[in-house]
Design brief:
Blueprint (H helix, E strand, L loop, with lengths): L2 H10 L19 H13 L2 H17 L3 H14 L6 H20 L3 H15 L11 H13 L3 H14 L4 H14 L9 H10 L4 H13 L3 H14 L4 H14 L2 H13 L5 H20 L6 H22 L16 H4 L13 H16 L6 H27 L1
Helix pairs in contact: 1-6, 2-3, 3-4, 3-5, 4-5, 5-6, 7-8, 7-9, 8-9, 9-10, 10-11, 11-12, 11-13, 12-13, 13-14, 14-15, 15-16, 16-18, 18-19
GO molecular function, one term: RNA binding
Keywords: Antiviral defense, Immunity, Innate immunity, Repeat, RNA-binding, TPR repeat
Organism: Cricetulus griseus
């Protein structure tokens, strides 16, 4: 293909409404947990809304250098859109086609990139701009995408814009409620309860919105009403991982850590992509262990047995979390920033040597630090592991000499 066509593509591609032009991630803000959360969402959604998440997954795969996998995700996005022969169906393909064009361009397959640009133009020529169109469907898709990426303020603006055209749309209303709920922690942001209640009225089957409302009511001192909503959501969506996770948060704030942990473990069983939840369960068990250590009867045999059980559970989930997928996306690891995981290094400054079981955890943590080029405590941790290894070798040799004598 001629250089003229390459130049024309470089002028057209920035006009397309898709993930490559939405500026979704701040530098260094994309963790490998995002891919897990997107995959979990794909499992939960009905076919009508899977395309949004497949498009986001394609962009994540592209950023991770997996271009062929990205193309396969886009094919899944196309399949997920119901084959209706109308303008709305064509509009729902625009984001996917834009992503195709960008990926093929970066792969150097310019004729294929041009083919998808032409498909976009064929639809958009019916409107004012030949390469983009203003419509609530695209605003809603951008809103859900930004919401999943943590760009809550911009997501809120997208949903508000969509609702101007479709004020009773349940999906846009739910998206606005979730975005507003997340922004409510900032003092200048509007209170989210009314938005959540309106979203529930428009979409009574959205159990995630229901548990978000429960958490807001708990914060307002209406815990009994919140718990009623939690019970109803768990009854209607007993295996929905995001509902279980938020319900766990409700019981954690209530102080019922055993119930909170039970719900998180249920969430683990309900999803294939477990890495974020392993970390969260690890933190919750550690929190429960600290709670028991502070009680007056911490020295009783029952308490000691329970604390040992919690310690083993904490270590097991820490081990599972440390066996996470390592991704080229990350300049850092989510796990390194968890105080409970940083605790792995604390024995470096102590006098006691770790057990063989704990040494395996430290080695995993050491590998993670090294992979992400973190130096904090790394040299000391390596020295500790080396000394432990030498101690074990000396002990084995000593035992062998005794046997020979």
């Amino acid at each position: 293909m001629s250089e003229v066509t390459r130049n024309s593509l470089e002028k057209i591609l920035p006009q397309l409404k898709c993930h490559f032009t939405w500026n979704l991630f701040w530098e260094g803000s994309l963790s490998s947990h995002v891919e897990d959360r997107v995959r979990n969402q794909i499992d939960l959604l009905n076919s009508e809304h899977k395309a949004t998440m497949y498009n986001l997954l394609a962009y994540i795969k592209y950023l991770d250098g997996e271009k062929e996998a990205a193309l396969e995700c886009l094919r899944q996005a196309e399949v997920s859109v119901e084959p209706k022969q109308d303008d709305q169906a064509e509009i729902r393909h625009l984001v996917t086609w834009g992503n195709y064009a960008w990926i093929y361009y970066h792969m150097g397959r310019l004729s294929e990139a041009q083919a998808y640009v032409d498909k976009v133009r064929h639809v958009c020529e019916k409107y004012a701009n030949p390469y983009s169109v203003e419509c609530p469907e695209l605003d809603c898709e951008e809103g859900w995408t930004r919401l999943k990426c943590g760009r809550n303020e911009r997501a809120k603006m997208c949903f508000l814009k969509a609702l101007e055209e479709k004020p009773s749309d349940p999906e846009c209303s739910s998206g606005l409620a979730i975005a507003t709920s997340r922004l409510e922690e900032q003092p200048e942001k509007q209170f989210a309860v009314d938005a959540l209640k309106q979203a529930m009225e428009l979409n009574a089957e959205n159990q995630y919105v229901k548990v978000l409302l429960a958490l807001k009511l708990q914060k307002m001192g209406e815990e009994a009403e919140g718990e009623r909503l939690i019970d109803d959501a768990l009854r209607k969506a007993p295996d929905q991982a995001d509902v279980l996770q938020k319900a766990s948060q409700f019981y954690q704030k209530k102080g019922n850590l055993d119930r909170a942990n039970t719900l998180l473990v249920r969430a683990l069983r309900s999803t294939e992509n477990k890495t974020p939840l392993y970390t969260l369960v690890m933190c919750r068990y550690r929190e429960r262990l600290k709670q028991l250590q502070k009680t007056g009867n911490a020295g009783s045999s029952d308490s000691l047995e329970k604390m040992e059980e919690l310690r083993q559970l904490t270590m097991e989930y820490m081990r599972q979390a440390l066996q996470r997928k390592q991704s080229r996306l990350n300049s850092y690891s989510d796990l390194i920033d968890y105080p409970e995981v940083k605790r792995c290094c604390q024995l470096v400054f102590g006098k006691e040597s770790p057990s063989a079981e704990e040494q395996q955890l430290y080695q995993s943590y050491c590998n993670l630090q090294e992979y992400h080029q973190r130096s904090e405590g790394l040299a000391a941790l390596k020295e500790l592991l080396k000394s432990c290894s030498l101690t074990e070798t000396a002990s084995i040799e000593k035992e062998g000499m005794k046997e020979q004598a």
